[in-house]
TrEMBL record, chains A, B:
The lineage of its organism: Archaea, Methanobacteriati, Methanobacteriota, Methanomada group, Methanobacteria. Residues 1-229 form the Aspartate/glutamate/uridylate kinase domain. This is Isopentenyl phosphate kinase. One of its GO terms (biological process) is terpenoid biosynthetic process. ATP binds at residues 5-9, 48, 168, 173-178, 207, 211. InterPro entries: AceGlu_kinase-like_sf, Asp/Glu/Uridylate_kinase, Fosfomycin_R_FomA-type, Glu/AcGlu_kinase. The keyword Lyase does not apply. Catalyzes the formation of isopentenyl diphosphate (IPP), the building block of all isoprenoids. One of its GO terms (cellular component) is cytosol. Belongs to the isopentenyl phosphate kinase family. GO terms for molecular function: ATP binding; isopentenyl phosphate kinase activity; kinase activity. Substrate binds at residues 47, 52, 147. Keywords: ATP-binding, Isoprene biosynthesis, Kinase, Nucleotide-binding, Transferase.
Length: 251, 251
């Protein structure tokens, strides 16, 4: 089973201060996945500008408040509807799974999540589509559960064969490629390379250090990940077809 | 705790062959509820033309198929997003609860439904908004779970004080008011009046006989219901304010 995480930075205009779709990328990425139609598959997408600016505006992290909760919830759901729309359009049978309907967190981490329904959809050859959402939290009031956290949780719980992070960068660099012209793409990171993580502090692209740290934990359990640039046409598609593309393998 | 069911016939153009919103009604009904702001409250809405024509087109009842399932799922979710949009606009803190994310049916009836998350949202004074949806079924492939069935289930399980069905008719008539000019509105039906149900066979407005039968079962358990015409301006609002309006009380 493959889990593909589509980055919010790919399908939305990440720098926008209000929810703004990158429709061109969204359509292309959905099309690329549907042209290969891998299965069993779980899709997870990030929130991009449908989440982050609103979380910030309502100061949800420092001051969990229900007005902000409800507005974020609305917008990420709206983004999910767009994603499902194009997947359906290009022929994939998808069902959206709303995290805030079925997840309860504790201290910012998934605590209760009955994945039985997801398993049933997969048995029926329907692709569940999850997304970064804001959910109830036992200890905090609410907490933001990122797409990355959902990927990590499902990857382990459902014993995924492979995880693909479709992002807006080619992979993991040894230094921040936006600052350093001599930054080099790391082709492979193994669990025993943990020490190298220190170097990622300079890498500010989408919390890459955090992503790698999570993916290394999965790698230790035998789940391999690949980070690929889905902003580049056909790169995700080629990867899904088993072709060699520029990327970072973790595991 | 009150449960309000907003009929699909009120907020959509029920006779349309494709999904068509009745935006004017939707906005007005949301505004009326938000002007009173009853709490604790659970909202449930029907699918109207966002569900029925698609269920029919894909022949889902006779021939459960995943393509039809996914398309229906998409459209009812879209309707739910509209409903949440206007409730938020008029100041209500709402969270949508997607039935297909948390319900599994058996033979067409709700079998698994963990209402813990709904209780938590209510504790936080957030109004859960559910809707008629298509869900996994243990015995059938999929089954349509109507808003009415959700109302009945939650009414009993969560011990509602009152249920209000906001429909497109004034209440329950002794005969079909569209056929018989002398049809009279029945102001109250008590559980011991069960026998009268026979008369409803002529009443074709939105499966009223089925609704009444379900509501009588709830009445036997002490949950009173009221059927009111939400197409008439301010009638729902007046009812929520405790004023006397034309309606049928069941229980």
């Amino acid at each position: 089973m493959i889990i593909i995480k589509i980055g919010g930075s790919v399908i939305t205009d990440k720098n926008s201060k209000y929810p703004k779709l990158n429709k061109k990328n969204l359509k292309r990425v959905c099309k690329e996945i549907c042209e290969v139609m891998p299965f069993p598959l779980i899709l997870v997408h990030g929130a991009g500008s449908f989440g982050h600016p609103i979380v910030k505006k309502y100061d949800i992290i420092a001051n969990p408040n229900k007005k902000g909760f409800c507005i974020v919830h609305y917008w990420v759901k709206k983004l999910n509807l767009y994603v499902c729309r194009y997947l359906l359009k290009y022929g994939m049978d998808v069902v959206s799974i709303q995290p805030s309907s079925c997840i309860i967190a504790s201290d910012g981490f998934i605590d209760y999540f009955n994945v039985k329904i997801i398993e049933r959809y997969l048995e029926k050859e329907i692709v569940p589509v999850l997304y970064g959402d804001i959910v109830l939290d036992k200890s905090l009031e609410f907490s933001v559960i990122s797409g990355d956290q959902i990927v990590r949780y499902l990857g382990e719980k459902m014993k995924a064969n492979k995880i693909i992070l479709a992002t807006d960068v080619d992979g993991v660099y040894d230094k921040d490629p936006k600052k350093h012209k001599d930054a080099k793409l790391i082709k492979r990171i193994k669990p025993e390379d943990k020490i190298k993580l220190k170097d990622f502090k300079e890498d500010v692209t989408g919390g890459m250090a955090g992503k790698v740290s999570e993916l290394l934990k999965l790698a230790e359990k035998g789940v391999k990940s690949e980070i690929v640039n889905a902003k580049k046409k056909n790169r995700l598609k080629k990867l899904l077809l088993g072709k060699r593309v520029r990327r970072t393998i973790i595991g």
